Amino acid sequence: MSKGPDAFRTISEVAQELELPQHVLRFWETRFAQIRPMKRGGGRRYYRPDDIDLLRGIRYLLYGEGYTIRGVQRILREQGPRFVISAGQNGMPGHSTRQPNADDRAPDDIDALDTTGDDDGYADTTFDPREFRSAASGNGSGANGARTRLGDDEVRRLEKTLSELLDLKRMLDQAR
Questions:
Q1: Coil, helix or strand for 39?
Q2: Residue-number span of the structural domain to which 36 is assigned
Q3: Looking at 74, 107, 140, which one is the last position of a domain?
Q4: pLDDT tens, 84-128?
Q5: Whether residues 53 and 137 fall in one domain
Q6: HSE of 38 in the Cβ direction (CA atoms, 13 Å)?
Q7: Is 0.90 topped by the overall pTM?
């Protein structure tokens, strides 16, 4: 027996419908104040149809359009939840008065996580991972004392790993 279109959904049902892991939905609740599922005894979440539509819009902006979490937060603040819901249902509405700026977009090769380090109490993590000192020699430089250059794929993997580590650190700090 399937539920009606207006029925509340559990987190597992929503995760399956949106093809997202449950932990991503819980994480998004910490980043987007507009996501407020009903919680019953034991903390069990029940999502309303509007909650699911908003999640679909957020998913579209993050994964389909390449926005960062901060970029989607800005869209929610400036355009409102209805705009994000509409984006998830119809693609990006063409009538937007706001043009996305470079800070709103994630690089094509990095997950849609915001790791800019600004305004969140974390030190600036800007670095050039292309310059890598070889650990093989005890002095932190390559065999001839020069730095070793990394390839673009290696740089992307390091940047992605750093992004994920910083995100995990933020979640641990929030849990404390």
A1: strand
A2: 1-107
A3: 107
A4: 999 988 765 543 434 445 555 554 444 444 444 444 333 334 444
A5: no
A6: 11
A7: no
